[in-house]
Amino acid sequence: MSTYTLSNQAYLKVFFHAAKHPHRQVNGVLLGKTVNKDSIVIEDAIPLLHHWTSLSPMMEIGLDMAGQYAESVNLTLVGYYQACERPDDTSLAPVGEKICEKIKSKFEKAVAFVIDGALLGTSQPALIPYVPSGASWKPHPGSNAAFAPKSPFQLVSADIPSRAADFVKNDHLHQAFGDFDDHLEDVTIDWLRNVACIPADL
Fold this sequence. Notes:
By secondary structure, this protein is an alpha/beta fold. The protein has 5 helices and 8 strands. The chain has one domain: Cytidine Deaminase, domain 2 (3-Layer(aba) Sandwich).
């Protein structure tokens, strides 16, 4: 089994995307690299859409641009993330499975994370890992203990969920965050990097 380590920057971007649009579906892709054959380090996240309902032309364009950006910084698309409209919905949407399959066609060890809205803003990571299972994607068998000691899923810093909540509550950093949808409305929004919302001392 491969292991997956989520950087602070990647976690914050996923968190900020969900926090900025708490009552919408949001999604994006994860950028990373393989270390020591079976260890995948997820270094960054690129937010795609919050108006999406299907695998639309805008989704395809956003995916292509995210892939090109990943190559430019010597990373690979290694996964996908999404949040649902309802906090209690933690299922991977059909469009999510299609995107996961597209990523998996180029990166065999692709992974997906669905945000658990009920835990978002707590000290818990609030991420449910999904992995391929036959012709579909299902929660990892140990998803209830994901990010616990000895789990194949880890955070670089165990306190980043709490810090992320503080950044939203106290500093409102999520308001500086933009996805591809936002960029289409205002081309000055740097959705690929989102450096404006990442603390310098992270």
